[in-house]
Amino acid sequence: MWNLGKTFGKLKEYWRFPVDSDEAKVRLIYNNVLAHPSVIIRKSSLIKNKLLYNPQFRKFQDYDLWSRAASCLHFSNMDEFLVNYRVHEEFSIEKQNISSYLLWKKIISYQLRELGIKATKRELLLHALLSNENKKGFNDKEVIEWLIKLYKANRLKRKFNNCVLLKVIVKKYLIFTSNKFSNRLNKLI
Predict the structure, then answer these.
(1) Measured between alpha carbons, how far is 39 from 24 in angstroms, rounded to an integer?
(2) How big is the chain by its Cα radius of gyration, in Å?
């Protein structure tokens, strides 16, 4: 099951978020899966677990908070549409990319360290490309090795439900191979 978010303004698209708590926690290692304006949380849970927004993350404060909260709180999305996001006319992906990637990299690096992984620059780049379903510049072997590394690390640390992690990893690999097949097919046509 998925929760939907919708954007309006310059960019019109639908966002799908997992409803299952275990899947939401696993998918946080790739992207933010909670629509911040729709979150309801007990203040006592935040205080008890010393969870505060980190001002260092500016536009990613929510993603950073959810990533840290995933290890100590139960959460999920509701199975109903709750949020419309407005994307302003002056919004520019080009202006956001470098600073956004650096903040995302800090959050992901923290999550990977919790799995016992100190990712190389190339592994972080691969992980970022898998997060955005863009796989240019990587081959099957690198992708498989990285996904297996994530799975094996989780088997040792038991941070995530192994079955759910495997489901997400397999989906990432299938998207990688289907994009690669599409690119080859387009070259032939």
Answers:
(1) 14
(2) 17
User: Could you tell me the two tokens for 149?
Assistant: 């590394």
Write down the domain spans for the chain: 1-114, 119-189
pTM of the model: 0.81
Q: Return contacts of 109-112, CB within 8 angstroms, 24+ apart.
A: 110/67, 110/68, 111/28, 111/29, 111/67, 112/29
Q: What is the mean pLDDT of residues 86-109?
A: 70
Rounded to whole angstroms, the Cα distance separating 90 from 150 reads 38
- Of the candidates 104, 94, 154, the one whose C-alpha atom is nearest the C-alpha of residue 125 is 104
Identify whether the C-beta of residue 21 lies closer than 8 Å to the C-beta of residue 75.
yes
Q: For the packed helices 61-69 and 93-114, what is the interaxial angle rounded to 10 degrees?
A: 20
**Residue 151 in tokens:** 């799975």
Q: What is the pLDDT of residues 33-78, one digit of tens each?
A: 888 888 888 999 999 999 999 999 888 899 999 999 998 998 888 8
The gap between the terminal CA atoms of the chain, to the nearest Å, is 37
CB 23 within 8 A of CB 106: no
